[in-house]
Design goal:
alpha/beta; Rossmann fold; eight-stranded mixed sheet; 2 domains; binds nicotinamide-adenine-dinucleotide; five-stranded parallel sheet
Length: about 450
């Protein structure tokens, strides 16, 4: 890379790109209009840029163009206003990519069934960009991926066009840190890490994000930027794994893990609270550390913390089922034939994202043991439970009273917990929603 820097200097077209970014006249594109791409596209459009969103899903394209949001953090009114002002438009065709000045890739990075990285979406989006790559374009990858993806996978595809990075076009990696459902920290206020293939790439990447984000954190390479994101999410996965293990230990020791954590967090330094739960879910925390473990393995290094945390976290849904079985047993009931009402299918509070949610593992394990499973989730009207389409059950006194146990898996804000408390014969509370009441209320069993 050092030799490359010595040979090339920024072209006039990249200078023009910088000018257009500062003047907010640059035409921007966002590939992948999901939980990450849509809020980002909206922020740039709000700032006055003309933004084109590209997504393979025709429902998402139509949603954006008609002002119908499918992401809870993005209000439909905002989409409508931006669409009317012709600031934000969506298409499913990559045909206009060549006309854009900067293109940000926000496509999924799931795991294969073998739990290895599946970067096929990044490759497909990169190929679309490569087909029409021209001088003066800035390309940024935001999808979470293993260190080396930008340099080793995307760069060769783009340079195959005969253009030189850092001189003719710019390439950067900037990890997305958005936390869906979090109203305190948003796209604009979360600092943005940017690494470029060359210093020019880093500078242009920083300039792009500096238009909408208060703090840009430049780092020395795309690999560092890729690794930053994996460190952040591995930190979460490992700490959640640790606290889940502590929860299992406390159960054996007859201690209330929540009381322990709440007292520990009064220490003003050197301790950061994490909370146990029915397992981890979503597109990031269960998968991202596996990207890192895979890359480390390719270099002959075994990421032991990651593997161990993964094992503990994946056991949690089964522990919840054991906890339910024990609670029923204490009431002389069996899981077999019992009616279970699960509260919250989404993987976390106040979002509609059910990807990899541990609630599905709980539901599956309950069904395997003969329980009859229904669910209530205001964000998830229908879902596939063990291959069958099921509708969210309205939360009524009758429904609650008919259940043998109500299991709180995700503690959305807009659920009537008071009604549950009054009517459910047994509550298994994996989120400590009824904090303080479990001891006094024999019907509430905590994790
Ligand atoms: N969801 C989060 O909270 C979060 C937070 C930080 C980072 N990330 C990372 O951001 C990336 C995107 O995640 P997401 O949750 O927004 O995913 P998502 O599934 O919600 O959205 C991705 C979109 O990309 C579209 N797409 C896929 N391939 C495409 C292609 N070739 N051309 C055009 N569109 C294409 C899909 O149709 C989908 O709408 C992932 O790498 C993820 O790990 C996600």
């Amino acid at each position: 890379m050092g030799r490359r820097l010595a040979r090339v200097s920024q072209s006039a077209t990249l200078d023009q790109l910088a000018t257009r970014l500062k003047a907010k006249t640059a035409r921007l594109g966002v590939i992948g209009l999901g939980y990450v791409g849509l809020p980002l596209a909206v922020e740039f459009a709000r700032e006055g840029f003309s933004v084109l969103g590209i997504d393979l899903d025709p429902r998402r394209v139509e949603g954006v163009n008609r002002g119908r949001s499918y992401i809870p953090d993005v209000p439909s009114d905002d989409l409508l206003q931006l669409a009317r002002a012709k600031r934000l438009r969506a298409t499913s065709s990559p045909g206009e990519l060549g006309a854009l000045d900067a293109i940000i890739m926000c496509v999924p990075t799931p795991l294969r069934k073998t739990r290895e990285p599946d970067i096929s979406f990044i490759v497909a989006a990169g190929q679309d960009i490569a087909k029409t790559l021209r001088r003066g374009q800035l390309i940024v990858l935001e999808s979470t991926t293993y260190p080396g993806t930008t340099d080793e996978v995307i760069l060769p595809m783009l340079e195959a066009r005969g253009l030189t990075v850092g001189r003719d076009f710019a390439l950067a990696f900037s990890p997305e840190r958005i936390d869906p459902g979090n109203t305190r920290y948003t796209t604009r206020t979360i600092p943005k890490v940017v690494g470029g293939v060359t210093p020019t790439c880093r500078k242009l990447g920083g300039l792009l994000y500096g238009q909408i984000i208060r703090t840009v954190v430049p780092v020395s390479s795309t690999k560092v930027a890729e690794m930053v994101k994996l460190l952040e999410n591995t930190f979460r996965a490992v700490n959640i794994g640790l606290v889940n293990e502590v929860a299992l230990m406390c159960d054996k020791l007859g201690l209330d893990v929540w009381e322990v954590i709440n007292a520990a967090k009064t220490k003003p330094f050197g301790f950061m609270p994490f909370y146990p739960g029915p397992g981890i879910g979503g597109h990031c925390i269960p998968s991202d550390p596996m990207y890192l473990a895979w890359k480390a393995r390719a270099h002959g290094f075994e990421a032991r913390f990651i593997e161990l945390a993964d094992q503990v976290n994946r056991y949690m849904p089964h522990y919840v089922v054991e906890k339910i079985a024990r609670a029923l047993n204490a009431r002389k009931k069996a899981l077999n034939g019992s009616r279970m009402l699960l509260i919250g299918l989404a993987y976390k509070k106040d979002v509609n994202d059910t990807r990899d949610s541990p609630a599905f593992d709980v539901a599956q394990a309950l069904r395997e043991r003969g329980a009859r499973v229904a669910y209530h989730d205001p964000y998830v009207p229908t879902a596939q439970l063990s291959g069958v389409t099921v509708r969210s059950t309205p939360l009524t006194s009758g429904q609650l009273a008919r259940s043998d146990a109500v299991v709180i898996l995700t503690d959305h804000s807009n659920v009537d917990y008071e009604l549950i408390r009054r009517r459910a014969p047994l509550i298994v509370d994996t989120r400590n929603h009824y904090r303080g009441q479990a001891g006094r209320l024999a019907r509430v069993v905590k994790l």
